[in-house]
Design a protein that fits this description.
single chain; about 130 residues; alpha+beta; Arc Repressor Mutant, subunit A; 2 domains; three-stranded antiparallel sheet; three-stranded mixed sheet; 4 helices; binds zinc ion
């Protein structure tokens, strides 16, 4: 094991991990890069990109896709929690309570030619930073 590259990679991953754990919400790539640089100022965009891809492969990072939104990244929790999208700042938050699995209740209403695989609960509104006028 050669020390230098491993050490660098570890510090860079730590920066990504810390950025996400402090954020308390899923971050898009630009936000992740900006916050990772608070921990490791010299970290480059391509390095963050490469590390994110590796962390996704290792399941130490989860990519969140929501309709009409850029991909975001979050640390895995294993819980199925609803997402909250702020109509003002467009930030995405993960709400703390798991939602009940609503799919079984809808099964009889889904036409037989469709094969449901999952569902996603998205709540829209205003975050604590953006009270409605
Ligand atoms: Zn907001």
């Amino acid at each position: 094991m050669s020390d230098a590259p491993t050490f660098r990679r570890t510090r860079q991953r730590e920066a990504i991990y810390n950025a996400l754990s402090e954020a308390e919400r899923p971050l898009n790539f630009e936000e992740l890069l900006e916050r990772a640089r608070m921990h490791f100022p010299k970290i480059g965009e391509r390095t963050v990109f490469r590390n994110v891809r590796e962390m996704l492969d290792e399941h130490s990072l989860v990519r969140v896709y929501l309709p009409g939104q850029p991909a975001r990244y979050v640390l895995p929790t294993g819980n199925h929690c609803p997402h909250f999208i702020c109509r003002n700042c467009n930030n995405v938050f993960v709400l703390p309570e798991e939602t009940p699995d609503i799919l079984p209740g809808y099964a009889s209403k889904i036409p037989p030619e469709f094969i449901p695989e999952g569902e996603e609960v998205i709540i829209y509104g205003y975050c604590r930073e953006c009270p409605p006028e």
